[in-house]
Amino acid sequence: MLKAVQILCCSSGLTRLTKTRNSSTVKLSTFSTSPRKTLCFNPTRMSSSSSLPGSDPLPKSPTFVSGDVRKIKFCQWCGGPTKHEIPDGEEKLRAICTRCAKIAYQNPKMVVGCLVEHEGKVLLCKRNIQPSHGLWTLPAGYLEVGESAAEGAMRETWEEAGASVEVVSPFAQLDIPLIGQTYVIFLAKLKNLDFAPGPESLECRLFALDEIPFDSLAFSSIYVTLNLYLEDVKKGKIKFHYGTINKRPGSSPSDIRAFSLDYHLQP
Ligand SMILES: [Zn+2]
Q1: Does the N terminus or the C terminus of the chain have fewer Cβ atoms within 10 A?
Q2: How far is Cα 153 from Cα 189, in angstroms, rounded to an integer?
Q3: Which domain holds residue 198?
Q4: Residues whose beta carbons lie less than 5 angstroms from ion ligand 1
Q5: pLDDT tens, 14-61?
Q6: Where is the Nudix hydrolase domain (predicted)?
Q7: How many A from CA of 73 to the centre of ligand 1?
Q8: What's the predicted TM-score (pTM) here?
Q9: C-alpha of residue 80 to centroid of ligand 1, in Å
Q10: Which pLDDT score is estimated for 117?
Q11: Is the dihedral of CA 223, 112, 122, 135 positive or negative?
């Protein structure tokens, strides 16, 4: 169940994914100094009407990150008021409880999901919740404490699509630093054909690869995942992909088209 926000871009105006360099040679580097882009979105056809209703959590400042500690006003342990300082020996601003002195560290969340393959088709769910209500996604949601990433991906697939699946292999890790999320997507196969939408889905369908509704996908991460998968299928070899989805520096926070996939690594 992915209820929180990831609206970096919906696919409505993302018309193509273009490979611009041989990513196999790309090494990790600091984004702020030298982003290495291997895949870029073409935002030229995005229309304002494609904005997702009621789902614009993007920051008001380009330098904002989702872990904005100034939004933490009270201590999660004792309820005391917080102050915002850089603790001794650290470099980042933290919310520190003025009563119990505990520091509220914020760390990214992991979203896990399955790219379910069946006879040349993939399983997608139409969302019945915000954000991105009515748009299509892979079954995915937040990993729970106590389960592995693969277990979480299978659970989410069961919850959202009523589908019993077996994980085949990891397929992609996509980091989204701006909002503090990491997507881990597994390839999976159906154990049987008995699937049906759960409460968070309006509909679940197997789509042939040339029928995937790229004009109505829910999230940039899903758009990227499906495009990488299609590229691999065309090449006849499914690989594991790592990449970082970044908002384009200097772009308007409200421009949900302005993202690129950086540091694309694959074997
Ligand atoms: Zn406290």
Answers
A1: C
A2: 12
A3: 11-59+107-265
A4: 75, 77-78, 80, 97, 99-100
A5: 323 333 333 332 232 222 323 333 333 332 222 222 222 223 333 333
A6: 107-230
A7: 11
A8: 0.74
A9: 5
A10: 97
A11: negative
